[in-house]
């Protein structure tokens, strides 16, 4: 739904003021689109998308070679893709593991041979997904978990694809979960190397794992974005019901579904429906 609503910085600031963020200064676990708003960064495919360092997204020759980039000392409006004053301290920003997982899956899928067995298996495994979404690597959490458990999916891969997939699963299970494995650094390095051999382009999410691994907490899996994932799943059902019609009626329907799901809600009128008591 964010693609249909123009989120303005003033709106984000208004929400932060209403929840009194300056008083509480919570850690914020959001996707990169919202990080851009919170830190005043320019959206889209920019030259310097990282809020920690001066990683050049367009210097693809150096992406898998250069691990340490010059630090971004300050977020100064008007310089290096910063267009507004940041609303929060960037030390309070945490990239949720779900979005890292989605980003890695996207890069893996985009690098697949579109005429190969592995890609064709993906199309058959998710017949309700359009071919455009499969080509773009747009999957959700449950779909990725399904593929991880699917041995037939792995059997459809060639040598390079299988090595990249196995390394991805290792990182998901031993780093993006509730605990960090003792060898998590090696697992991430192995995955990055496998993705490079497969021909994956390095995205900003891969860059965070490659260059800023130390920024992630020990219990990364606990810092989840389950509400955001649930929102996207619910909205997918609403989209199918309203067939792409975006209006106030659709949003009201979604809001009522949230109210009905609240089992702890108190109701002023008691239901007269009779229930069988064994």
SSE blueprint and pairings:
Elements: H1 9-18, H2 21-24, E1 28-29, H3 32-39, H4 60-63, E2 93-94, H5 97-110, H6 117-125, H7 131-136, H8 141-149, H9 151-155, H10 159-174, H11 184-198, H12 204-211, H13 226-242, H14 248-260
Parallel strand pairs: 1-2
Helix pairs in contact: 5-10, 10-11
Walk me through what this model shows.
This protein has 3 domains: 9-94, no CATH class; 97-222, no CATH class; 226-256. It is built from 14 helices and 2 strands. The chain has helices at 9-18, 21-24, 32-39, 60-63, 97-110, 117-125, 131-136, 141-149, 151-155, 159-174, 184-198, 204-211, 226-242, 248-260, and strands at residues 28-29, 93-94. The radius of gyration is 21 Å and the shape is globular. Residues 1-6 have low confidence and may be disordered.
Number of strands: 2
What is the overall silhouette?
Answer: globular
How many H/I helices? Answer: 14
- Outline the biggest β-sheet: 2 strands, parallel
Q: What strand line-up does the widest sheet have?
A: 1-2
List the domain count as a whole number: 3
Low-confidence runs of at least 5 consecutive residues? 1-6
SSE order: HHEHHEHHHHHHHHHH
β-strand amount: under 5%
Query: What is the SS-derived class?
Result: mainly alpha
Helix content: 40-55%
Radius of gyration: 21 Å
**Intertermini distance:** 46 Å
Average pLDDT metric: 84
Short précis:
The chain is mostly helical and 278 residues long. It has helices at 9-18, 21-24, 32-39, 60-63, 97-110, 117-125, 131-136, 141-149, 151-155, 159-174, 184-198, 204-211, 226-242, 248-260, and strands at residues 28-29, 93-94.
């Amino acid at each position: 739904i964010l693609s249909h609503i123009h989120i303005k910085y003033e709106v984000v600031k208004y929400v932060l003021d209403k929840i009194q963020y300056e008083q509480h200064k919570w850690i914020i676990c959001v996707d990169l689109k919202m990080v851009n708003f919170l830190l005043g960064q320019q959206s889209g495919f920019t030259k310097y998308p990282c809020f920690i360092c001066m990683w050049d997204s367009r210097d693809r020759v150096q992406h898998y070679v250069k691990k340490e980039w010059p630090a971004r000392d300050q977020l100064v409006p008007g310089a290096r893709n910063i267009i507004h004053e940041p609303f929060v301290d960037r030390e309070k920003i945490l990239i949720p593991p779900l979005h890292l997982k989605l980003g890695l899956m996207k890069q893996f899928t985009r690098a697949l041979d579109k005429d190969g067995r592995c890609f064709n298996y993906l199309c058959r495994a998710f017949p309700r997904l359009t071919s455009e979404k499969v080509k773009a690597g747009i999957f959700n959490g449950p779909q990725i978990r399904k593929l991880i458990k699917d041995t037939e999916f792995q059997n459809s891969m060639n040598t390079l694809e299988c090595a990249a997939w196995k390394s991805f699963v290792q990182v998901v299970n031993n780093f993006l979960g509730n605990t960090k494995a003792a060898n998590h650094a090696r697992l991430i390095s192995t995955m990055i190397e496998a993705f490079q051999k497969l021909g994956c382009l390095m995205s900003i999410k891969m860059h965070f794992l490659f260059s800023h691994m130390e920024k992630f907490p020990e219990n990364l899996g606990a810092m989840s974005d389950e509400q955001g994932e649930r929102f996207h799943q619910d909205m997918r059902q609403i989209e199918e019901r309203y067939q792409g019609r975006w209006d106030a009626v659709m949003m009201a329907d979604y809001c009522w579904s949230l109210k009905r799901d609240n089992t702890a809600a108190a109701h002023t009128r008691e239901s007269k429906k009779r229930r069988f008591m064994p």
